[in-house]
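We emphasize that the prediction below concerns an isolated chain of 289 residues; any contacts that depend on oligomerization or on bound cofactors are therefore not represented. The input was used exactly as deposited, without trimming of termini.
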Amino acid sequence: MWDYTEKTLEHFHNPRNVGVISKPDGTGEVGSMACGDALRLMFKLDDQGRIADVKFQTFGCGSAIASSSALTELIIGKTLEEARQVTNQDIADFLGGLPDQKMHCSVLGRDALLAAIDNYEKGTPADKKVDSDVVCNCFGVTSQEIERVISENSLTSVEEVTNYTKAGGGCSNCHDDIREILNRVNGDTAKREKPAKPASKKKKMTTIQKIRLIEETLDREIRPSLQKDGGDIELVDVDGSLVVVSLRGTCSQCRMANFTLKDVVESKLREFVLEDINVVEESSLEDEE
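Result of the prediction step, given as a token string:
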């Protein structure tokens, strides 16, 4: 499991300013439920042009909920120009820090805020993303979004960009494009990102060895915590780097099922088995058929 601060957990369990605003002055929508994280942010201004009310709705993991809640606390009472200065690092710092792999949740919040401000000031659509500019098709991340987080957070590697935006965290086909953006933003200096070497952390395994190690990891690292809450997990199939599982009991109906699959199961299997493992739920494959 991720190592969250007490403040992050508190904002996850008791999020502030959840809901909707009737006739908001500005609305921003970012992310996609199909990609695992989606956020809608709305604000209302007072007569002095300050944010008098802000509400959010989010679909995502615990850190996405906590980051959204923290953002609303940070911007209430600010002018739009002051709110625009709030960075994703400010959100993370407010929560006492976020795991590197969860920094994209703080970026999601800031992107929603900027979209909402543009919606108010320029009349742009709440979701102003231009599909033709999407670099990462798996998670719908544009070149402008990647450029901004690289510049604002001094990122120098594809892995860091993935941590902050999710871009490159799926099929990896966009890694070369991300490297080009890194080189362009940082300049052709010593920071130039070189192609990643093939992972050598784990030696090549037979399918039987892989299945055995996956089962051992599920038994040791994952199943006990799921069973405590009345849930369970079953290994259904292994095809190369694709691992098909089925969530059982309370886990099968839990709204955090996607979080469990990607942030718990997939993370642990990548840590203890192979780094390129991709975990999917059996029901999602059945839906495709």
